[in-house]
Amino acid sequence: MNVFLTGATGYIGSRVLLALSGAGHSVTALVRDPSRVRGGEARLVTGDMRDRDLVRGLAAEADAVIATATPGDASSAEADRDFVGAVLDGLRPGATLVRTGGIWVHGPGADLTEETPLAPPALVAWREEIDNRALTAPGIRSLLVEPGVVHGYGAGIPALVFAGAQVGDPAALQLIGPGTQHWATVHVDDLADLYVATLTTGATGERFLAVSGDSPSVTALGEVASRRLGLDGRVVAEDPAGTVARLGGFGEALLMDQQASGEKARRVFDWKPSRPTLLEAFAAGEYDPA
What region holds the NAD(P)-binding domain (predicted)? Predict the structure, then answer.
C-alpha cells in the first residue's frame, strides 16, 4: 500500500516508519528536515504539515494517510484543522485516513473504553471537533488511534518521573502529583504495530484506545525510579496545585487517573502488545539519567 506519513522524525512516527517499511508498504514521508530520518525506507518530501497545497497533493497520490505529526504547542489546533481539511480535499474515494488522538480526551476513569464519554482537560479540548470531522468524512475510511502514555527507548512523558526534585533528609523523589493516579501506557513499538494493522482492518468512523492494558500508579513508577536514583524507593507526593503551577495544562492532564485495557484493538486487529511494560523498563535502567 502507498502510505503518506507525517511525523516520521518524531518519537511515534519514526517507529511507525520502521514498522511500515518492515511490513512492505511504500511510504512517502513529509518531513521538515530529511537529515533527522533514522531508518526505514521512504520517499522523503521536504515540507510542513501546514502547507495545504503540498498536503493535498500528497494525499491525492496515496492509498492511505497516517498522521502522527503535531506542533505540540499553541498552534496545534489550527495546524491539525488545516491538515485534516487538506487531506480530506485530496484523498481519493475509498482511501484510508488514520489519525492520532489521545486517551486524555476521555478524562479520568478506572476502566476507560472507546465508548467512555469525552471529558477532556483544557489542554486537548480542541481535539473533539477535528476528530469528529475526520471520522465522519464521507467517501473515505477514517479511523482514530488514541495512544495512552507512550514509552520506550528512554523517551517520552515517563522520563519526567526521573526528573522530579529530590527533597527532604534523607532525600526522596518528588512525584508528579499525589501519586495515586494511574497512567494507561503503551510501548512505542507496540503502538507502531497498531498503526500498521489499521491499514487493512477496522471500520470507518471507529476510534481505538492504544494501550497495552498496563496502567501503573505514579507512586509505583516513582518508587522504582527512586531506587534507580539511589534513594531507596523513597518518594513524596506533590500537591496537585503545585503540579499545575509547575507544568500548566500538561500537569493537569498528568494528574488524571486513567486505566484502560485496550481490549477493542486486540479484538479487531488481533493486536498483541508484547514489549516490556513501563515498570519493567524503569527497573531495567532504560530511563536512568545519562
Answer: 7-82
Residue 255 counted as domain residue = no
Handedness of CA 63, 98, 114, 220 (dihedral sign): positive
Which SS3 state, helix, strand or coil, does residue 10 take? coil
Distance CA 18, CA 151 (A): 17
CB 70 within 8 Å of CB 100: yes
pLDDT, one tens digit per residue, over 120-163 is 999 999 999 999 999 999 999 999 999 999 999 999 999 999 99
Average pLDDT (202-227) is: 98
In CATH, what number is assigned to the domain containing residue 86?
Answer: 3.40.50.720
118, 106 contact by CB (below 8 A): yes
The DSSP result for 24-66, as a single string, is T-EEEEEES-GGG--SS--EEEE--TT-HHHHHHHHHH-SEEE
Measure Cα distances from 242 to 165, 233, 255 in Å: 13, 22, 11
Number of domains in the chain: 1
